[in-house]
DNA sequence: TCCATGTTTCAATGATAGTCGAAACATGGA
DNA sequence: TCCATGTTTCGACTATCATTGAAACATGGA
């Protein structure tokens, strides 16, 4: 991941409405949610929500797929994980420190 | 961590100059760096840098301590970790998924 | 006390982003 | 084909942020 991509991803999350949307999608898991449901859950009007979902998609943090009249959005866990790795890259100059496990999910539907 | 705090932290990182500063501090480890050294390493002019360091400090992602005429800045690894946890909270609705270890350091100087 | 060095504040400027109603668009079913 | 439903685009407004030189401030040493 490059700086530019990280800034785009972080900018996408650095906004109350979008952060709420992203977390809602994270909680929904790989199955995702239709845009209307996200609007309902977050209280964000459809037009605003569409703007924000576009931003999250552009940042690679969400993905859309068509399902009949619905557009299902899903969180992209790998992008999230890449971002975290980037932020802590070469931590402490490569010297040993104390890594911690963070619950960053994979995109797989079932645990392996 | 609350939404407001997360947005503040993410906003702090969602900016090319500040992201570079934060990563520089992360790489410096708990020992930190004086402001002037950060300016030198990142190429950001002192006045701009001061503005950004203030933002990072306000967000809890960096901390300042006085050392003679120098002000030493350090990355706050715990805040970083809290942020990651917040982003993935209640991931997949609590259903089992595949957690991944991310190298988020603690603030300790030596590994335990 | 006076100076050199390191850091922060100030002020002005230009640019970017969030919001949401109304209207347009897309899809599937009757 | 026509309609109902779900989603996106458009447009206009307001607000907030990044940048940087110059000046002010703080600290330690002579």
Find the count of extended strands of chain A (DSSP E, 2+ residues).
Answer: 4
Biggest interface, residues from each chain = A-B, 45 and 45 residues
Whole-angstrom Rg of chain A: 15 Å
Quickly count the domains of chain A. Answer: 1
> What about the largest sheet of chain A?
3 strands, antiparallel
Which sequence of strands runs across the widest sheet of chain A?
A: 1-3-2
Mean of residue pLDDT of chain A? 87
Assign an overall shape of chain A.
Answer: elongated
* Strand content range of chain A: 15-25%
Low-confidence stretches of chain A: 108-112
- List the helices and strands of chain A in order: HHEHHEEHE
- At the fourth level of CATH, the homologous superfamily of chain A is Winged helix-like DNA-binding domain superfamily/Winged helix DNA-binding domain
Assembly form of the protein: homodimer
Question: Care to describe what's here?
Answer:
The structure is a homodimer of 112-residue chains. Chain A has 112 residues and is an alpha+beta fold. The first copy, chain A, has a single domain (3-90), classed as Arc Repressor Mutant, subunit A (Orthogonal Bundle), CATH 1.10.10.10. Chain A contains five helices and four strands; from the N terminus they run H-H-E-H-H-E-E-H-E. In chain A, strands 1-3-2 form a three-stranded antiparallel β-sheet. In chain A, helix 2 crosses helix 4 (46-58). The first copy, chain A, binds a DNA duplex (30 and 30 nucleotides) through helix 3 and helix 4.
